[in-house]
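Open question from group meeting: does this chain pack into something compact, or does most of it stay loose? Before anyone orders reagents, we agreed to write out a predicted structure and look at it together. Recording both the input and the output here so the notebook holds the full record.
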Amino acid sequence: MMKLLRFFTPIAIVLLLAVAPGAGPAQAQANVVTFDKDELAIETAAGGRHVFEVEMAVSPDQRSQGLMFRHSMAATAGMLFLFERPEPRAMWMKNTLIPLDMLFIDEGGVIVRIQERTVPFSLQAISSGQDVIAVLELNAGTSSRLSIKPGDRVVHSAFESGS
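Structure tokens returned:
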């Protein structure tokens, strides 16, 4: 009986560690936060209006998680990162599996910079280059496909010009 216990004890410990919170790779997703959704529109200088359903990243935990660990995102979806005050911002792609377009937005809802087709998993900082209050992440290629450019306007209640 003692031999049997000595054999099963290490197996039991390994099984307990495998399912314990914080054990192994599952830990990265164990602290997943949820996001409220809202609608916004981008109005282009060329007269286009494009509507997206976005997840709202407003808390520090939400902004920290962002779109990490996602395998896909709907064509008309995105994530809007909102900050308390305008200042230069930098984003990265750590643990982000899908390439993105990052649109940097000022207080009035004007897109001031677009970084297209970001590289998944990259730790390179992607800077706004000036004060912004928000960053909108869309699927890579969306800006180009819809002719969205700096100077175009994001219509959302978070911005001074929003509705």
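Observations to bring back to the group:
The first helix runs from residue 2 to 19.
DSSP finds four helices and seven strands in the chain.
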